[in-house]
Amino acid sequence: MSDAYVIEVSSRTAGIVVRDGRNFCFHAAHQDFHSLERRTFASLVAAQNAASRCAEQIRKLMR
Hints:
By secondary structure, the chain is α+β, with helices and mostly antiparallel strands.
């Protein structure tokens, strides 16, 4: 049985993470988060933090 969770950043869907054993695999919902595609994380919090950092990097580039 797999568990899937939506990861949002600033009310925007970044992607979903799917439990893969003890880890969570990220699947990007938007091209801005493609750098996280298929990366694995030890926790949901780690995946959320990575998506937040990714969004922050994009905001900095847009300035």
